Amino acid sequence: MLTYNRETMVSRAIESILAQTLRDFEFIIVNNGSTDRSGAIAEDYACEDDRIRVIHRKKGNIGSGRNTGLDAAIGEYVAFIDDDDWCEPDFLEFLYDLAIRHDAQVSICGATDKVFDEEIVMTAEEALIELLMRKRYNMAFPTKLFRNELAEKLRFPDEGKFDDISLMYKLLAYSNMVTYHGLPKYSFHRHDGNNSAWTTDHRLLTCDILDEYLLMYRTRTVWLSERFPKNAEAWRYFEWSFMISMMEKINRLGIKGCQLQYDAMIYELKENIQEFAQSRFIQDFETEWIRKYVEVV
Description:
By secondary structure, the protein is of the alpha/beta class. It has helices spanning 10-18, 38-48, 62-72, 91-102, 124-133, 148-151, 163-173, 207-227, 232-253, 259-271, 273-277, 284-294; strands spanning 2-3, 27-32, 52-57, 77-79, 86-87, 106-111, 116-122, 144-147, 178-187.
């Protein structure tokens, strides 16, 4: 767990881990240069429970902080919890049993905002398509348990804010098997100070956020197309799907300051309109948005 200035929330996250039915684990808390009592609170818990190890570091972005935790982890499996969230008492046991039963390198549970009482086993490519559809599970590292051996291939970005977006697809791509059961074992706390607040309040979208996302999605498309060329048309579709959704939000919400990005997305979509419009993944509302925002230009 990475924490930064969450003195009013971090205890809830820590206690939800200490209450786990699976008792054999190491709990690494990385204090990312907090200026409040978050680090001291973590140390207080460490004094009471020898499974906790607290690492204090100078403030960096979320990705560099998570890398610190990955470097320190020695367990067979790794799971993340954010310092403003909490999980159910059987969170770890549920994910561990799921992984063992299916001999999977990654196991995924549901969250309170995505509940599906179904259990599925997927190849890497199948899991990636489910990820990019964003119906059953999302890009967030919490809700996932993965073998530590995968961490050797994973490094969170040392710059930028949205580390999950840039790395989750690689985690699944490197896996030989992914299993999912969508019962809700994790709770995300959405609030104004949350790093991903804009995803639930799109009025917070800025040109800088859009630039970062567009670059990450283009990088993802190229990377996945090289690794899984048979599904290259799927990876392209999901990038264009993001673009048309952003265009709809900019128009509907009257978001200002993103005209350069908007024009670039129109150009990209017009250049690839036939493939996008005929994709096997395209949704009816996307077809309507194409007519409304792209074909009219």
